[in-house]
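Q: Here's a chain of 375 amino acids. Please give me its 3D structure as tokens.
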Amino acid sequence: MSVTREILVDDAATMPELLGSGDAVIREVESAYPDVDFHVRGNRITLSGDDAQVASAATAVDELRSVLAAGVPLTPDIARESVRMLRSVQGVASAAAAASAGKASERPKDVLARSILSTRGRTIRPRTAGQAEYVTAIENHTITFGIGPAGTGKTYLAMAQAVAALQAKRVNRIVLTRPAVEAGERLGFLPGSLNEKIDPYLRPLYDALHDMIDPESIPRLMEAGTIEVAPLAYMRGRTLNDAFIILDEAQNTTREQMKMFLTRLGFGATMVVTGDVTQVDLPGGTQSGLRAASEILEGVDDIAFCRLGADDVVRHRLVSDIINAYAANEDRDGGRPVGQQRRFERRDHHDRTGRERRDRPARPQETARTEEDAE
């Protein structure tokens, strides 16, 4: 049954923000409901179409108004994620009904308006339901594993939680570490001092740190030991008390390295381990420590595993499409071996050549050379 519904925005001053620059926000909602006609005039939005579709579209618009009222600037990405979260609650006609059904955590306003850290004139918030669950897990568990593809905010949100914990004096220092493994290339020996050699591997951690702390204060904090950035190899033998510890790119740890890192945990400490098991750069045949830990530690008390997906990607929209395309291709191929196999394929070729040489009869000149060697 076709119906018409009108939404009146009481505060006309918020109408431009609700519509977005160039009407980009409302167009995003409109594209999500192609069977609904949207008409905007003044501070009124009129929806026409199928009864159920109009009700869903009206719920999406009302929820965006709630998100805006909570102080979150609206963008097309925010609108897209808001619609996706609302659609995950099937059969619920309104956000208020979702709350009464015990699903308030799935409301876009509850997720998108949550503040982790306010710094340098901006607020860092989770932008998807998966990210919100990840943030909650870090707050409620001693060790949290954030596993997911690139662009899902695993490291960035963990860093925001670490800085917030330091500012609130829940910890005395932040320790950031990652394994020094190249992504498929061998760069050889790097010039400079030890710090200059390891700097390329730790640069992503520095980048996130500079987004959240005044760059001028970082050298002072590092000199005082309040913030420490070090390769994973330097973790052995240490006990980290009253610290927030982040292990990044954990898929490139070995099983032994992961065990070594996790056993550095001290009193009053929080650990976050992040990685993507689909991007392992270890030599072929080496089991990823992150993959092993997810199998061994699943179900252990006070350890949380948060698995983010393509829906949680907050980079360019194409990143999510690329991740889905690669996943579909690997499913068709039945999966691929973990690690870099090409070097081992060459080794196998040489071994096979050697076996062929040992198995075939010796040539006359080879026999003569063998006799000379024996003499």
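Q: Can you summarize the key feature?
A: Residues 51-69 form the longest helix (19 residues).
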